[in-house]
UniProtKB/TrEMBL annotation:
It holds the Pfam family MarR. InterPro entries: HTH_MarR-typ, MarR/SlyA-like, WH-like_DNA-bd_sf, WH_DNA-bd_sf. It comes from Mycolicibacterium rutilum. PANTHER family: MARR-FAMILY TRANSCRIPTIONAL REGULATOR (PTHR33164:SF57), TRANSCRIPTIONAL REGULATOR, MARR FAMILY (PTHR33164). One of its GO terms (molecular function) is DNA binding. The keyword DNA-binding applies. The keyword DNA-binding applies. Gene3D superfamilies: Winged helix-like DNA-binding domain superfamily/Winged helix DNA-binding domain. Residues 1-139 form the HTH marR-type domain. Keywords: DNA-binding. This is DNA-binding transcriptional regulator, MarR family.
């Protein structure tokens, strides 16, 4: 099995756990596709001014139309807010609402639990080596870092 597939399996397991935690937290109206956009809006990943739809679409690897439809749904549900871009009157910025930030906090808490489980399974040294290796790979795989 390829290393890329092994990384995907771990990511898929983490994503499933986060989605289960969101349902338990009452955010059962968020789809996996919507959550992938929200990950990019998480305040740890973006400055407080928000992101443009085109940037979100590019980073999530979806079309602008798909990102727009997903953001429409998230906005209707109260998870995101769109506001005018002060630097470009034609553009709008997307930010998390308070409700959206609460969902991202719940997701972050579940990820922390999952990483604790992985650390316990692998041992601290091996877990930290895994993290260091993935961070090093990010240097050549993530154009959005």
């Amino acid at each position: 099995m390829s290393t890329a597939t092994l990384m995907f399996i771990g990511h898929r397991a983490a994503e499933a756990r986060v989605m289960e935690a969101l349902v338990a937290a009452g955010a059962d109206d968020i789809t996996l596709a919507q959550s992938r956009l929200m990950q990019r809006l998480d305040l740890r990943n973006v400055n407080s001014t928000g992101m443009r739809l085109t940037d979100l679409a590019e980073q999530a690897r979806v079309t602008k139309q798909t990102a727009g439809a997903l953001l429409d749904q998230l906005e209707r549900s109260g998870y995101v807010v769109r506001s005018p871009d002060p630097n470009d009157a034609r553009a709008r910025l997307v930010t998390l609402s308070d409700k959206g930030m609460a969902v991202c906090r719940a997701a972050g808490e579940e990820i922390a639990k999952l990483e604790d489980e992985w650390r316990a399974h692998l041992g601290t040294r091996r877990f930290e080596q895994l993290r260091e290796a993935l961070l090093a790979l990010r240097e050549i795989t993530d154009p959005y870092q």
